[in-house]
Amino acid sequence: MIVKYFATIRDLTGETARPIEGAPRDVRELLQQLAQRYGAPFRRAVFAGDELHDQIILLVNGRNVRYLQGLATTLQPDDEVSIFPMVAGG
Amino acid sequence: MFGWTGTILRVDLTKGKVTREATDPQLARDYLGARGLGGRIVSNEVDPTIDPLSPSNKLVFAPGPLTGTFAPSAGRFDVVTKGPLNGSLAGSNSGGTFGPEVKYAGYDAIIIEGKAAKPVYLWIKDDEVEIRDASAIWGHNTHDTTDLVRAETDEDAKVACIGPAGERQAPIANIMNEMHRAAGRTGVGAVMGAKNLKAVAVFGSGAVTVADPERFKAAVIKARNMILAHPVGGTGLKAYGTDVLVNILNQTGALPTRNFQDGHFPNADKIGGESLAAKVLVRPKGCFSCVISCGRVTKVDSPAYAGYGEGPEYETAWAFGADCGIDDLNAVTAANYLCNKYGIDTISMGATIACAMELFERGIITAKDTGGVQLTFGNAAAMVEMVRQVGENEGFGAKLAEGSYRLAESYGHPEYSMTCKKQEMPAYDPRGVQGIGLNYATSNRGGCHVRGYTIAIEVLQNGAVMDPHVTEGKAQLDITFQDLTAALDSAGACLFATFGIGGAELTEMLAALTGVDYTLDEFMRIGARIWNQERLWNLKAGLSKADDTLPQRLLSEPIKTGPSAGEVSHLDQMLPEYYALRGWDEQGVPTKAKLKELAL
């Protein structure tokens, strides 16, 4: 499993990607693990209370978890997770 | 009238005559300005069956009522005409500072008619208008043209001009303003070149009048604060520019790669907004009255591609990058600078080179055609050289200047041109994002993303989220975006203001500015009216349901790799519903009832 960071999330983590140790069962557990690693600014960016922050776009294998099972979306060992802040262009 | 100036300028280049007429208040109310009013003028005055490059075509420069006020990002204008790429009621929207100057000079629209006997430029200083000799300026790139015209007129004049590509009437030629902003699409530069019109220079000392200044000021402050509070409008676009989209489209599996042969580009990060910020960005830049500042002032130091300018935007980075299989940001940026100087649409240019690369790799064109250049995917130097050849009208450049449809067709393989209605599709793969495919297929001006930008919901989560892989709900989504954008374009606002505000805030600003009691419903109905106006005219120009389609590749060849592997476009599931919701018959013709409802 690998998690990739983009745009301002790279500033919060100091890196562009990280292989994931352990086997987080779902997206919530993964984000909690990452928040432990990167600290409060990262936690504040990805969580709003107990929910996924509405300014975060989180993809599992290219699919936005908001039309999957949200933070309860289960993860497999070879998944690729991408974390973006809201972005735009045209 | 408030908001509008009340005057339209008409310039007959054949007779060398300049006249003024009053803006029709009812037309202004019903079509706003810019794309809507310009489209109404072309609709009324141009025969849909004429040759777009003939003197019978008209070219309308039109700002909107909001243009030139301090409404957020209210600096836009449209150029409207019969487009040479596909004969549609076409045109392009642009930012910068040209649009406000046209309002300050006192005009709701500048209608260019006929053809000058020799190259000319137009100099408008308030109500003094001259058609001046441009013989000494013809042949110059857009940067030198802007400097030369200012030297002859006023150092503070705002200048819209064509480069060598427009002079040669290349169907992918654009009109640049302020050197770095483009009315990019549909070949508007070719129409200007066909009229022997090199530039329009404007200086205005007037102001925009406001019906209810206190109400307008309150609405503007509220809107600006909403945009500033939005993560994208307030900070995201300023930090990374539009090029930030490269990675999210790639991670979604919908970044068209190597002429839409795939939807995932392994080295995408090298040409994305994060890399741009780290490697070539000098500073952000905003247009008139803009708090967003999505523009990029950039510089390339590498000797092979050294240069300074603005951009690239996302579409450009994609077109010269992933679509050509290229991950060299310096080369992509250099190609962007060349297009701006020569006056060429970057989307159509990059996508045409990508088409040529596929034809080359398939052996349909050879090194003999390309003058020895190995025009293969990934060859950055070849890509930049091709742009240069188009600009200089050398070698294979003469063929590439025609756009990918005419290029591929000339070699007997139009199926390798990734176009809709002969205009190159932009940077979103319809197989990975169903709704944008429907928008490409139904867009009145051809392959276009921006006039129905469902990506905002299907990928970017702006206010709502819809699964990009499903077709359900996409017909209505497209219609909502198309109508809202048509009205917004016509008001003179920038589309990026919608990262912060919506139709309600735009309507409130319009009502306070003009004194017309616009409601949100009427605002959307105006958008639908403008969309249907374009559609009706296109049908008379010979376009039909048969043109509301996508290249066969996207309908039947699945994406090969990445998160959208295995997907194709399901346009056939969306188009009938789109027609029905639009109030059109099964042939895509607006019904009498719909036309009556829209007062068309």
Task: Describe the protein in words.
The complex is a heterodimer of chains A (90) and B (600). In chain A, β5 and β6 form a beta hairpin. By secondary structure, chain A is of the alpha+beta class. Chain A has three helices and seven strands, in the order βαβααβββββ. The radius of gyration of chain B is 22 Å and the shape is globular. Chain B is α+β, with helices and mostly antiparallel strands. In chain B, a hairpin with a 4-residue loop joins β1 (7-12) and β2. The longest helix of chain B is centred in the C-terminal third of the chain and has 22 residues, at 520-541.
Main β-sheet, spatial strand arrangement of chain B: 2-1-6-3-4-5
Count the strands of chain A?
A: 7
Q: What is the count of helical runs of chain A?
A: 3
Radius of gyration of chain B: 22 Å
Main structural class of chain B: alpha+beta
Low-confidence stretches of chain A: none
Assembly type of the chains comes to heterodimer
CATH superfamily membership of the largest domain in chain B, which one?
Answer: Aldehyde ferredoxin oxidoreductase, N-terminal domain
Helix percentage range of chain B: 40-55%
Structural class from helices and strands of chain A? alpha+beta
CATH-defined topology of the largest domain in chain B: Aldehyde Ferredoxin Oxidoreductase,  A, domain 1
Q: What percentage of amino acids of chain B are in beta strands?
A: 5-15%
Order of helices and strands of chain A: EHEHHEEEEE
> What helical percentage do the residues of chain A reach?
25-40%
Q: By CATH's scheme, which homologous superfamily of chain A applies?
A: Beta-grasp domain
Principal-axis shape of chain A equals: globular
Largest sheet of chain B: 6 strands, mixed
Any low-confidence stretches of chain B, pLDDT <50, length ≥5? none
Comma- or semicolon-separated keywords:
heterodimer; A: 90 residues; alpha+beta; Ubiquitin-like (UB roll); five-stranded mixed sheet; two-stranded antiparallel sheet; 3 helices; 7 strands; B: 600 residues; Aldehyde Ferredoxin Oxidoreductase,  A, domain 1; Aldehyde Ferredoxin Oxidoreductase Protein, subunit A, domain 2; Aldehyde Ferredoxin Oxidoreductase Protein, subunit A, domain 3; 3 domains; six-stranded mixed sheet; 24 helices; 40% helix; 14% strand
